[in-house]
Amino acid sequence: MTGVATDTGAAAGGEGTDLRIEITADEPGAAVLRLAGRLDALQAPELDARFRELVPLGRVRLLVDLSAVGFVDSAGLAVLVRARRTTREHGGDVVLIRPRSPEGQRVFRLTQFDQVFRMLDESPR
Amino acid sequence: MTEVATSLDLGADLLSVRRIGPWLSELLDGLPAAEAGALHGRLELAVHEVCVNIVEHAGVADGDVLGLRGDVTLDAVTVRVTGPGMPIDPALIPEPRPSEPQIRGYGLMIVRRLVDRLECRADGGRAVWMLRVDRDGKGTGR
Fold this sequence. Notes:
The complex is a heterodimer.
Chain A: E1 4-7, E2 20-24, E3 30-39, H1 44-54, E4 61-72, H2 74-89, E5 93-97, H3 102-111, E6 118-120
Parallel strand pairs in A: 3-4, 4-5, 5-6
Antiparallel strand pairs in A: 1-2, 2-3
Helix pairs in contact in A: 1-2
Chain B: E1 2-11, H1 20-27, H2 33-57, E2 65-73, E3 76-83, H3 107-114, E4 117-123, E5 126-134
Antiparallel strand pairs in B: 1-2, 2-3, 3-5, 4-5
Helix pairs in contact in B: 1-2, 2-3
């Protein structure tokens, strides 16, 4: 499975950016999810659905690239926390690439989940 | 004394909640850019979390509306959110332990950390949330 892109949800009339999810899964047991836009309560279920598809396929080592995500709320955080729990139950983990914007980073900092998740500044080579 | 006041009626649904950011931009337009930027970041997330909480937990019905009013004074920026549901005392809601990886319950904790004062009271059968951020000239990013 390589380069599966999903542009989720209806347009918000120019008020906000929908979440785009691109999944690359070239390595057995692993996948990279590149996200762009808003990871909020409206779009979090779409990301949750992607995780629920990947884990039963044995893809439990997940790298989630949030660098182009400009807004994360508690619902978006909850989906990531649930994925972390599920993948770890299967011997994997969720590693995050930190959002570039302060708005994207804020939820992680306020809840101290920036100290729970392994968070990278950029994608490993 | 209020220097600027604006209001906005939102549909009580998750898509409409996305109008908060642009509305706050208008409300804060007259402030120095650095302060406005910092206040916008804090208030957008805080007001968003309150509105999502109402949409998801207050038993909204078709056609329900969330009323937002923002006031900018020399001392503070205050946003009031009026919506369906019973008022709750934010101080009585237990917080998850920071950094402990439980899945839900972080919304109100995030709001508390973003604002200087948070209240919720009843008004004519609706709940009115009041979020106040004190002005220090910089917006003190959180």
